Inverse folding.
């Protein structure tokens, strides 16, 4: 069973569209994240939720809106997609406190054309 | 400010060679955590190891070993007798221990390792 699963794995869409990426974890963790990996492989945190509460929002454009319906799910909705949004988006989870291991999903490859 | 530097962008070795991936970090925290992740060509991020700042013991896991030295702010990763399956991008990451920080990872730029047969 996949610990952190995200769908879709590949997404090609046109500029201006709205799209969502879904994420679910079955590890019983209380903290979930979205990270973005750009074309140069650089990884950076976007959001973090702890027990459904937003705790980290790293200067991400407000076209990106995360939603956590429960501890096991964290979805990412992106409005008005731009070319620069093309990237790999990783969902991840950990059990709370700073320093605990973060486990990543397989990534969602988003291409905006 | 916190920062992780992986100065080696790309390394190419021949199978069975030993290879060391360097990682240097900066933080003002006295409590922090260091990680290594592997990203194979298939793209997923695989957790390899976690160390806290109070534990400087080196660690060995099979062909993998890690050398943590606080005096030089380094957390280097060595693969002994490299294999083609070790070809991947390797990321070093830092997580600080300040209150309110629930695990934000600061990643280095990654080192692409190519192991040739």
């Amino acid at each position: 069973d996949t610990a952190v699963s995200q769908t879709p794995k590949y997404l090609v869409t046109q500029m201006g569209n709205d799209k969502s990426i879904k994420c679910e974890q079955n590890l019983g963790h209380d903290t979930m994240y979205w990270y973005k990996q750009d074309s140069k492989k650089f990884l950076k945190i976007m959001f973090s939720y702890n027990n459904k509460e937003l705790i980290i929002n790293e200067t991400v454009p407000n076209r990106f809106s995360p939603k956590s319906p429960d501890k096991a799910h964290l979805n990412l909705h992106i409005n008005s997609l731009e070319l620069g949004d093309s990237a790999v988006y990783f969902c991840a989870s950990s059990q709370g406190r700073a320093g605990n291991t973060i486990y990543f999903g397989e990534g969602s490859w988003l291409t905006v054309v | 400010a916190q920062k992780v530097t992986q100065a080696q962008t790309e390394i190419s070795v021949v199978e069975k060679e030993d290879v060391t991936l360097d990682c240097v970090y900066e933080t003002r925290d006295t409590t922090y955590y260091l990680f290594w992740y592997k990203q194979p060509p298939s793209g997923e991020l695989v957790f390899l190891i976690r160390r806290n700042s109070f534990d400087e013991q080196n660690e060995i896991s099979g062909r993998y070993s890690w050398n943590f030295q606080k005096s030089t702010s380094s957390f280097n990763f060595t693969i002994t007798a490299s294999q083609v399956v070790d070809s991947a991008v390797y990321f070093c990451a830092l997580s600080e221990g300040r209150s309110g920080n629930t695990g934000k990872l600061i990643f280095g730029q990654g080192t692409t390792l190519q192991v040739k047969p």
The mean pLDDT of chain A is 93. The CA atoms of residues 9 and 38 of chain A lie 16 Å apart. Chain A touches chain B at residues 31, 33, 35, 40-45, 48, 50, 55-56, 88, 90, 92, 94, 96-107, 109 (CB under 8 Å).
